[in-house]
Amino acid sequence: MTATDTATVITVVFHSEFHYARTLEEVDALVRRIVEDPPRPVCAVYVWDRPCRGHFEPGGPAFPTGRLRVSTSPATGWGALNYVDRDRPDGALVDSFNPDAGPATPVLPLDTNGIDFPASASLPLEKVREAIAEYCRTGARPTCVQWQLGEWY
């Protein structure tokens, strides 16, 4: 599935700021924004057949069952991922996993409420970029990174 051969819409939400992508060029630009210049350190990425809607939009909130949450820190070169989709067989709540994480691996925020990823979820930004792009193409949990059980939705 790609944004050009289906009616797929990528929605990225930075807090309450919604961004949409429908073409490959728009998806590439949105992935770059998440990794290189995010307006907030944490966002949620949705792949659906229509744009997601927020609480204050006509018709109320509308989101698919799957989500990739992304935390990036361009200044440090690290990011982390959280995936869940209760409608898919591989949809268990998981965080990215870095088997090489050590004492110097940074801890990144999982959300804006003070909950953090474990340091073992932190990955180099290029790996995070690759995973986001894969998710946008497939709508499924990225296979280019390893995963561990997650604690927080």
UniProtKB/TrEMBL annotation:
Classification via InterPro entries: DddI
Pfam family, one: Imm1
Protein name: Immunity protein Imm1
Species whose genome carries this gene: Saccharopolyspora phatthalungensis
